[in-house]
Amino acid sequence: MGEWLGSGLSDEELDAAYNVRRKAGEELFARHMERYRAESERAVDGLPGRPGIVYDEASGERLDVWGTGEGLRPVFVYLHGGYWMALSRNVSSFMARGLWEQGVATVVPDYTLAPKASLEEIVRQVRACVAWVHRHGRDHGLDPERIVVGGSSAGGHLTGMVMAGGWQEAFGLPRDVVKGAMPISGLFDIRPITRVYVNDVVGLDLERAAALSPALLPVEHRCPAVFVVAEDDGEGFLEQSRWFQPRWGAGELIVAPGRDHFDVVFDLADPESRVGAALLGLVRR
Fold it and tell me: SUPFAM superfamilies given for it (predicted)?
C-alpha cells in the first residue's frame, strides 16, 4: 500500500504514538472517565430535550437530543471516542448545557461498538444519524440546515467520515448536509491502527483501513472545519491533525494548551475557551 503515516516506525514506536491511555496512566485515565460521567449528568439534569430516540432501524441504535428551545436551533452532533470499542452517549453530553445557553442544541448518538460491529458498520450508523437529523430534526426543534458535526479521537475519525464525499446520495442527502465540522484528536489515515493494540478488536487490514481513512476518500464539498488537538496529546494524534488540516484546505488548526487527549473535549462546554468559541463560530456561520 506504499508509504503512510508512521509506516517507517516500529510497532513499539507506533504503540507509543497512539496508546494515549498508557500515556495518561491508569489513575488519570480513571479520573477523566469519571469526569465524563459526572459532567454529562450535570449538563442534562433538567435540560429540555428527548433522550433515547431510535435513529437507525437496522441496528436499533439510539440518540439523545438536548437543549432544544423556541423555534429551530442549530445542532451540534457529537460522536464519542473510545477507539470505536468503548464509551457511550450517556457519558458524552457534557457540552449540552453550555451550548444550550448559547442557543445551540446537541445530539449525541450511540453506535454499536467493536467487535460486535465492524468499522464499516459503525461508519454507516453515524452517517445514518446525520441523515436522521436532516430528515426528522424539525420535529424535535433542530434546524436541518445548520448541522455541525464533531467528535473526539475515534469520534474525530467518524467526523472525518461524514466530512468526506461519496456517501450522501445513498442516504438521500445534499452534498453539503454537514455545514461545519470539528474533529478533535482525530484519525484521518487509520492505516497505523493496523499495527497497534486496537486492531486486536477492530481487525483491520491495510486495504480496509485505507478505504476507511477520511484523508484518502473523495471530497465533493469542503465544509468549514476546525481541527483540534491537545498540546499533550499522543504524538500520532498530533501528527494526524497537523498533516490533514492543510490538505482539507477549509479550516484552521487549534492546539489546545495545557490539555491532554482526554480532557480537551471539556472546552466544548466553555464559550470563553478557544475551542468553545471556535465551535460557536462554526455553528453561527
Answer: alpha/beta-Hydrolases (SSF53474)
